[in-house]
Amino acid sequence: MLHTHKSFLTRAGIARKATLSIGFACALSFAGGAVAQAQSRLSLHQAIQLAQDSPAARIGKSEVEAMQGVVNQAGLRPNPRLFLQSEDLRPWASDYTFSQNTEDYAYVSQTLETDGKRSKRVHLAEARLNQTEAQRILQLQQLDGRVAASYWNAASTARISELMQQDLRAVDEVIRYQQERVDAGAMRGVDLVRMQMERDRLSMALEAARREAQTARLELARQIGRQFPDNIELTDSLESIDPVPKQALEEVLARRADVTMAHQAVAAAEADLKLQKSMSVPDIDAVGGMKRNLTDNTLYLGVQVPLPLWNKNQGETQRAKASLQTAQEQLEQMVFAVKQDVASATTTYDQELSTIQTTLPEARDRARQNLSIMRDAYVSGGVDLLRYLDAERTEIEVEAGAFRALAQFHLAAVQLELAYGVEP
Description:
424 residues, alpha+beta, 4-stranded antiparallel beta sheet, two-stranded antiparallel sheet, 10 helices, 8 strands
């Protein structure tokens, strides 16, 4: 009987430490809003791809298309205007004849833009289009970061829930074994009661872990923008450690979408200033057509030029100058913020990497060794049940903490990749 007790404890310990098997990822299938009933698998890469096709991601695409329309509109020339005019109308006179007694005009007016206003409008619209495109890239990267963070949180909480479930099964085996010993009179009932109390504690902890795992999955679905089955398997392993390659700061500044946005904001402000200055140069309205004076047909030509005596677009020019200065200062601030962001993300990543490579393995090994020693001692009667339970609880806490630490490492890696301006 003692041998049986030790055997099932060993099997339970091995089962609880088994890692999740990783298979080849297959794409999720969503048809008509109904989810598949069979087991589905989801990798981080697939989750990001799904999120990039979500309504939240398509908003940015629509904004870019809207700005492309603005660019097209900016390049259009002013429309000509048609004038039809008659003078000396006297329909009440008895000797009046329209064709013989009126002066009639038919002419076209065309505004001729000066000082390259049309090309400057196009340059301004193109700079704003580039700014919108950079903003869309930034939004997608931020969405990728949120999806990755939700994915690793869901993966860690799922592992903790599985850990609790495996420990609960092991405790059930211990309780069954102790019940048999108590019924046979070979063991005190107090140890059985204590183990039943431990089961109650583990059961409540398991329910809390399941709720946390379910909440994490719902958050992942919200970030992806799609529903998926409750039994979906997150295939990327927490134990898989892929170091993030270091990036040169110059490459980061050239790649970061928010820095690109700041550069394009400066370009747009410069184009706006040039356009506002050109607005002080008056446009010319050229007029040409025909005039019929009584019975004679003649040509009609004219030019209209506004006189910029008071309104020289001074206010808009002043505004554009201030906007340019603001954009330049924001660019400088953005470059400094990116440098700090990279430094902070690098420090956090290095710390988390050191933790999982050095501190974490040693802590897990010590907890497992301690549990193994306490298990053998309890089976042989060398220690009481309380000390064994304490070792079991410590090992569970260390394992759960390990999953959380691994998730924190992956989150730090995601933040560093976002700081570098690359997709997680």
